[in-house]
């Protein structure tokens, strides 16, 4: 079962690590391994959401999601998108960006370094909004209840996430500008770029969130219309065109899943810039991670164990919050790549361990009640 579900992921992992070893030696292999784990940890909650929707789709649309969806996720978001980010922020063409990444690494590294404040501000704000919207939402299951309970109460204030994110951005930009003046003003012009890029990250998050909400609402409308049509057909004794309605609903499911996947792919790509600027290592690591997320989605659907480890989603979002802070800090200060990569892994492992302990406690309480 495991080999059948994760077979392609294992194969891609082996090829990717071998390629990383040839390309970047042991350092490159280590970075790709960390990026793979980071992508899986950041996207685990995405796999859970995907599985919850995917199990409602028929076999045809499941296959479409796992084939066309993989092409969009792996080649579109993990391979093309990092090139686009560098090209836009550095003001060069995508072809030139790829050529520099492969043939003139020193120049490419310089362009990425110059563009890093803009990349970090854009990505940091995007990730920060994901984290803030999560912790300010009132949930039935709370991992760190002492922290999440008061934050959920604060979350009742409208637009609180956006206000806090903008305050953080203003402080970051002002601090960056002050330090630039203090050190001779070499980066004073970039302070405005940091501010503009951060606002762009906030706008991007709102657009992606709006699209996701739109497709989710359409999906609910389609399911409600399908249910009403079935009830009406039963009362009148007429046959129901189930295939057409299921196909239409499944199409909106597919669109909704792709928007969700794109948003989670985006935080993985942005988070990767906190670990490495090497576009080849980034593509290898994120590509491997994306394959495991897809395999994990299928595994969760087939095993039906979506609710076994309830704190993993919390751990993933805390990892996103940590990455947001790290990206914003790296606008001015360097942070070791290993530390950056391990933060997310530690948070995910902690949430998994907490979930296992919770399950054992509930099982023990159930046994005691029966006795």
Automatic annotation (TrEMBL):
Keyword field contains Cytoplasm: no
Swiss-Prot/TrEMBL keywords: Membrane, Transmembrane, Transmembrane helix
Protein's UniProt keywords contain Ribosomal protein: no
Pfam families for the chain: DUF475
Highest taxon, organism lineage: Bacteria
Regions crossing the membrane: 65-95, 115-136, 157-179, 191-215, 236-257, 269-294, 315-333, 339-356
Name by which UniProt lists this protein: DUF475 domain-containing protein
């Amino acid at each position: 079962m495991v080999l059948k579900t994760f077979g392609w992921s294992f194969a891609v992992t082996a090829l990717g690590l071998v390629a990383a070893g040839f390309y970047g030696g042991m350092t490159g292999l280590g970075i790709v391994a960390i990026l793979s784990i980071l992508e899986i940890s950041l996207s685990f909650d995405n796999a859970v959401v995907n599985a919850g929707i995917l199990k409602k789709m028929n076999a045809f649309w499941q296959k479409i999601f796992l084939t066309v969806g993989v092409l969009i996720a792996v080649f579109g978001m993990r391979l093309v998108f990092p090139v686009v980010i560098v090209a836009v922020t550095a003001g060069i063409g995508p072809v030139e960006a790829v050529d520099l990444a492969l043939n003139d690494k020193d120049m490419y590294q310089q362009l990425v370094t110059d563009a890093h404040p803009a990349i970090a501000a854009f990505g940091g704000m995007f990730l920060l909004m994901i984290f803030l919207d999560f912790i300010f939402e009132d949930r039935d299951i709370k991992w760190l209840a002492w922290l999440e309970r008061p934050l959920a109460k604060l979350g009742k204030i409208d637009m609180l996430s956006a206000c806090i994110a903008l305050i953080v951005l203003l402080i970051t930009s002002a601090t960056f500008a002050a330090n630039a003046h203090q050190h001779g003003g070499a980066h004073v012009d970039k302070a405005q770029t940091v501010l503009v890029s951060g606002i762009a990250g906030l706008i991007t998050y709102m657009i992606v969130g709006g699209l996701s909400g739109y497709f989710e609402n359409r999906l609910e409308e389609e399911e409600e219309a399908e249910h009403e049509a079935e009830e009406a057909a039963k009362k009148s004794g007429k046959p129901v065109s189930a295939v057409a309605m299921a196909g239409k609903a499944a199409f909106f499911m597919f669109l909704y899943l792709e928007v969700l996947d794109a948003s989670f792919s985006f935080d993985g790509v942005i988070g990767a810039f906190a670990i490495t600027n090497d576009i080849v290592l980034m593509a290898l690591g994120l590509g491997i991670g994306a394959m495991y997320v897809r395999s994990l989605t299928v595994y969760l659907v087939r095993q039906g164990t979506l609710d076994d480890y309830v704190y993993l989603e919390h751990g993933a979002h805390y990892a996103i919050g940590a990455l947001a802070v790290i990206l914003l800090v790296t606008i001015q200060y360097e942070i070791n790549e290993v530390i950056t990569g391990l933060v997310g892994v530690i948070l995910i492992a902690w949430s998994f361990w907490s979930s296992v302990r919770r399950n054992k406690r509930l099982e023990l309480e159930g046994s005691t009640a029966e006795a």
